[in-house]
Amino acid sequence: MRPVPKQRRGVTPRARLRVLQLPVVLWLTLVWVALWGELSAANVVFGLVVSIVVCLVFPLPTLPMDLHIRPLRLVWLVLRFLGDVVVASVEVAWITLRFWREPRNAVIEVDLETSSDFVLTVVAEMVSLVPGSLVVEARRSTHTLFLHVLDARDTAGVDKMRSQVYALERRVVRALGTETQRLPEGGTP
């Protein structure tokens, strides 16, 4: 009687293909070409090789992308975000020039309404890109963001920042979310 061969441990070829997510490989290749600053066949091919090696050595778990892109709402999301950046930049400049009054900072907790990891990530990144606020922790298990906020003097300042994050979450869901992720139209959740 022949012994039953043991299953090989390790990554199967099929699992290896799942690790090579095409959008990630293309994005890394694009970053490679941009970093070298020259669009040539050799640069693109070498960028592909490097991105495949990176994906094989540092595999990322596949995330379900529950996306439904709405172009007009996406344009509004981007325009509003750019407006928020400009307004916040002026506010931060004023706070730093106001030497007679020391800013009081706060770390606040914001529980997001959606359970989408994608929405959590987009909201956290957009909040961090606006001057005067920074995400110090994001809890995936509870979909909670902890933000460091510049010049939140009292509960009104904290509530204002929370309402801004909830409004941003609603805009992200309207622009990129699915029908099951719909949030109330106004106010804080």
TrEMBL record:
It is found in: Cell membrane. InterPro entries: Cation_antiport_E (IPR002758). The chain crosses the membrane at residues 20-37, 43-62, 74-97. One of its GO terms (molecular function) is monoatomic cation transmembrane transporter activity. It is a multi-pass membrane protein. GO terms for cellular component: plasma membrane. Its main location: membrane. Pfam families: MNHE (PF01899). Keywords: Cell membrane, Membrane, Transmembrane, Transmembrane helix. This is Multicomponent Na+:H+ antiporter subunit E. The lineage of its organism: Bacteria, Bacillati, Actinomycetota, Actinomycetes, Propionibacteriales.
